[in-house]
Amino acid sequence: MSVTTLDPHTALIVVDLQKGIAGLPAVHPIAAVTAKAAELASAFRQRGLPVVLVNAGGRAPGRTEQSQASMPLPDDWMDLLPELDPQPQDHRVTKYTWGAFLGTGLESRLKSAGVTQIVLAGVATSMGVESTAREAYALGFNVTLAIDAMTDLSEAAHINSVSRIFPRLGETGTTQEIVALLDSHSV
Question: Which segments constitute the Isochorismatase-like domain (predicted)?
């Protein structure tokens, strides 16, 4: 289903568009993804709607079959990409799991602000974005996914999330479609 509406109290959540992750090889050019996320952030800010900028500060402990490097990270690894033009009123979340809700206080912050819907953008489609979408859906938020404002390290994983997972969690649309809904006074 394509994006059809935005609730009056919708927030934008931008996941992991940070220096340490932006340098990884992605399916879509990170500059284009960041530009779309920045366009969404600007549109939300202009309408006084919340913008949440999420960065990854590490990962949850635990064993995995896939090797995970434990090298020290560069000092600027967690820094948000400057193209997002972070503003003082933006809410910032540092996460240590794939999703932005677990252990961060994000749910209570959004619900206390009356937010009923979130729009998601960022990287990686099949990890940080999908995990945040799954958590938001489970917490009762309406979910919209800006599919041209996200990318992944794997094309197959990106396609799977966009075509199979996201339609079960919410509505998908492009940045242009989402901004048009903002413009149509449906929020």
Answer: 10-177
